[in-house]
């Protein structure tokens, strides 16, 4: 797939809306399992934008992309990966449970997801993410 196809995924508003619900769902389930009581939370755009920056995903978005749109790109990518069976919700929840820092956990999820999307489609732009050593779960 071409660079335009990757950009289509990252900027797809429908994927971002579904991704918003998906990200909040997996994070809420992880917290529910950690705390032992039902918990419902919203993951802030700030956390997702910081994770996008730490993972390198922000670097493949246009330079002046705002925090909300960076978070939308993360949400679109994660739900795209889930829909294409590249990362299950259970795997994402396990990553979130292993590291209580949400920025670090989401950074790791983005890195793993980017590798898998790159394997599926061959997006060279994702190489800058997948070539990074994962330092989030040390």
Task: Explain the overall architecture.
This protein is an all-alpha fold and 138 residues long. It has one domain (3-130): Ribonuclease iii, N-terminal Endonuclease Domain, Chain A (Orthogonal Bundle). The protein is 68% helix and 0% strand. It has seven helices and no strands. It has helices spanning 3-11, 13-35, 45-55, 67-83, 89-98, 102-121, 127-130. Helix 2 crosses helix 4 (67-83).
Describe the secondary structure blueprint for this structure.
Layout (H helix, E strand, L loop, with lengths): L2 H9 L1 H23 L9 H11 L11 H17 L5 H10 L3 H20 L5 H4 L8
Helix pairs in contact: 2-4, 2-5, 3-4, 3-6, 4-6, 5-6
Summary, kept brief:
With 138 residues, this protein is mainly alpha-helical. Helix content is 68%, strand content 0%.
Number of helices: 7
Give the overall form.
globular
Which radius of gyration do the C-alpha atoms yield? 14 Å
Mean pLDDT: 88
Helix content: 55-70%
**Series of H and E elements:** HHHHHHH
Class by SSE composition: mainly alpha
The CATH architecture? Orthogonal Bundle
Q: Please, what is the CATH homologous superfamily? A: Ribonuclease III
Q: Tell me about the biggest sheet?
A: none
Distance between the termini: 33 Å
Q: Mind telling me the CATH class?
A: Mainly Alpha
| CATH topology description | Ribonuclease iii, N-terminal Endonuclease Domain, Chain A
The number of strands is: 0
Q: Could you say how many structural domains there are in total?
A: 1
Strand coverage percent = under 5%
Regions with little confidence, pLDDT below 50 for 5+ residues: 131-138
């Amino acid at each position: 797939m071409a660079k335009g196809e990757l950009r289509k995924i990252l900027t797809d508003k429908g994927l971002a809306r579904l991704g918003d619900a998906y990200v909040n769902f997996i994070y809420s389930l992880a917290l529910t399992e950690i705390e032992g009581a039902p918990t419902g939370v919203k993951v802030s755009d700030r956390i997702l934008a910081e994770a996008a920056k730490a993972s390198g995903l922000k670097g493949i978005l246009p330079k002046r992309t705002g925090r909300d749109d960076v978070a939308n790109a993360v949400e679109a990518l994660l739900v795209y990966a889930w829909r294409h069976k590249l990362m299950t919700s259970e795997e994402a929840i396990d990553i979130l449970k292993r590291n209580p820092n949400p920025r670090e956990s989401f950074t790791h999820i983005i890195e793993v997801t980017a590798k898998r999307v790159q394997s599926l489609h061959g997006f060279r732009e994702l190489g800058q993410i997948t070539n990074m050593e994962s330092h989030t779960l040390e």
